[in-house]
Write a structure and sequence with these properties.
Number of helices: 10
Largest sheet: 5 strands, parallel
CATH topology of the largest domain: FAD/NAD(P)-binding domain
Number of strands: 15
Mean pLDDT: 87
CATH superfamily of the largest domain: FAD/NAD(P)-binding domain
Radius of gyration: 23 Å
CATH class of the largest domain: Alpha Beta
Number of domains: 2
Oligomer: single chain
Length: 443
Amino acid sequence: MSEDSGLPVVVIGAGPQGLAAGAHLLERGLEPLVLEAGDGPASAVSEWGHVRLFSAWPELVDEAAARLLAPSGWIAPQAGYPTGAQWIEAYLRPLADALGGRVRYGARVTGISRRGRDRLVDAGREQSPFTVHVTSPDGDEERLLARAVIDASGTWRHPAPAGADGLPALGERAAADLIRYQIPDFMSPEGFSGKHTVVVGAGHSAATAVIELARIARAHHGTTVTWVLRRGVTAGTFGGGEADELPERGALGTAAKRAVADGAVVLATSFRTERVRRDAAGRAVLAAEDGRELAPADAVVVLTGFRPDLSFLSEMRLDLDPVLQAPRAIAPGIDPNVHSCATATPTLARDLAHPELGLYLVGMKSYGRAPTFLAMTGYEQVRSVTAELAGDHEAAARAELVLPDTGVCGGAGLFDDPEITASGGCCAPAPQLLPIGRVPAGA
């Protein structure tokens, strides 16, 4: 592409995948320009720096990044499960420093297009460079040219709401001072001890919050925890346990199940939040679509997933699955409506390609609303994408990653009524409800 000669590949986001993309591009002889909206590397990770990952160190370091760091004497950590803060300090910050001036902070991408061509124009489109519109914290604007764009901006700052219909529940915004959409730092239990906390969500983040709150409840009398699940409890609700090939991920579900079984946490199942109101004391009361209400809560922790920000891609020609908002080619393998098995295969450049030649969504953003992303998946993505951009089509098409089995197999589970037959998903009979403690109606 003649107009692209000498232009960088713009990478959006200086998180784990964005920084890894920078390392791979350099190794391939392509010049990266990594744009980060925050004031330091992995600014999103820093917001959950207190949370421990369930992936071990060897699964959290990209190989090209390690090669870039090696001349400085950096040695990759080999054992243990770091917190987000430790991930930054021991790996991501040194990687950003190694990339040097190729990483720009305080650079928020507000739009991407083609030079001189909006979304409607076909003529000469693929020969025109990308225009990346950037805004600084002071409001200054500039337009950068790029030969290709790798969007690794993630989904962290776009959490899903408590409302079961995908929109904020009635009163949810008005109760914002009582609601958190991130895993709190439970090292200081004062905000939760002796109080009632409601956790809404069914994934690993919710399980982490439940485990920590159960620990506080055991140590501080009067602390109560309610865990809200929109569906019934099935064999897959608490993960794969010992069958999970990521041991700490399996242990997470096992510990959450134990917290429910021993009474430290009470479940509210098939509870689809419709409204949040305040009681006379100003506490939050969650009401379900079927009329049930939970006991007033001093705090509500909503961990119902995240969503991709597609607003700055409005001039790009995307091919996204209408359900997950992920690239259409990878959606069937990650759709939680279809299965929760580890049947998803590594995603490569061909799977992430869009009609807009030279644009790739990688990392968490590539999974849209699906909740099953692993760092190692993203590293494989950027390895393949950068190989494709460098013209090494053979390497781009070669899968070099085997994903660990979750130990869970079955469909998404029973949604409303135990009598409704659920799909068995990829490889298991229909899941059955498990008799684990619930919140009584009207509690």
